[in-house]
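Tokenise the fold.
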Amino acid sequence: MAFAWISSKTFTNLPSSTTSSSSSSSIHSLYPWKLCKFNHHPSRRGANCSSCKCGLSSMGDLKFVLHDALDLAGLSTTHARAARVGFCSQVEKLSDIERETSITVNKGVDLGRAALHIAAEDDSLISHSSVPLPVDDFIERLNSLSMGYCSHYGSSFRSTPENFLDCLERYLYVNKGFRRTNARNQIEQRALYLNSVLTHRSGSVSMLSLIYSEILKMLRMWDVLNFDVEIFFPDGSHSSPRGYYRRPTSKDSDHSLIMTSQSLLVEILKDLKNAFWPFQLDNSISPFARAAQAAQCFTGSNDSEESALGLASAKAARHRMQRGVWTSVRFGDMRRALSACERLILLETDPKELRDYGVLLYHCGFYEESLQYLKFYQVTKQSGATNDLEEDAVNKLIIRLNLILMEEGWSRQADIKKGTLFKNSEPW
């Protein structure tokens, strides 16, 4: 079944790729996160900035859609844009070295502030509050955890590294009561945002890893920690992040479970994307495949059958969202899914994020922009690292989008307020 969550075909007020160079420079100043390159950092074989521009010469520069679409709908995005700029200011510090640096020794990127800017943007998108999320206040609360550890376990600095880590984990998980939750459920969505985790002491493994690393970072800045510590990202479904003493002669820092600055940001954003992805039926396939299946472009095998109760629950959830009631059970949140995709694209780690963003734009009615992102994905993807069924779905979507854009009489003058994205009748 296809769900057209947004019907925003009126996107004509945005500058086109045929504008003059002067207007283009002014647009760049307004939207500093306008995509101009996409490097696949893990392999370092992605297109560089110059080659990217050549590849885009036939379809113009790619632009993000969410904030501009909400502005056209009459919804203020002032605070959301400010939070995005704050996030971008941290992403810009991700040099090649910083991307591979352990989160416990990272000095360039303020991961706590980046996570709070993520929370601030999503809070603004959903609450439409006239007051932005107080990022600095939560930074202070995060720093106070380090101060609290010093007052409770100051003697641990003179003990062995193993004893220090035991004390730190006792302080974090026992004294302060932080615990891991399963944030896949929409009910637990607050576990995905740092401000909520600091308030409720219940968070995803990514959030707990971030808090753990921020305490270590502050202790290192205060020169009370004189040995190297790594944080292992637990592979179990219930384990919490744990510290590990890295001996000077050890090569354990190459362990795949150790979190780097880049991998932690990717995990945080993928948690958000998966939690709010609008197509939650059949989790045995990827989010893109579910969205393509809803568009009837994916024909992979599906052995799981949804119960009548599950389908009825999903239908009821969709009905509530169309009425503006944000208590959806199985239908995600298109705004926050789009914002997560846009930030993942900014990290420039995986070309598949372009594809996922493109299929969401298709369901939103942004056909031209969807086609641009899907084509750009085909240019930047790595050969041999793709799924044949999913690639077939991409090709079908591109064919359909070309037909839609060529259809005689197709117009972008439809009523912008038809779609769910622009229905702002929150129950409060």
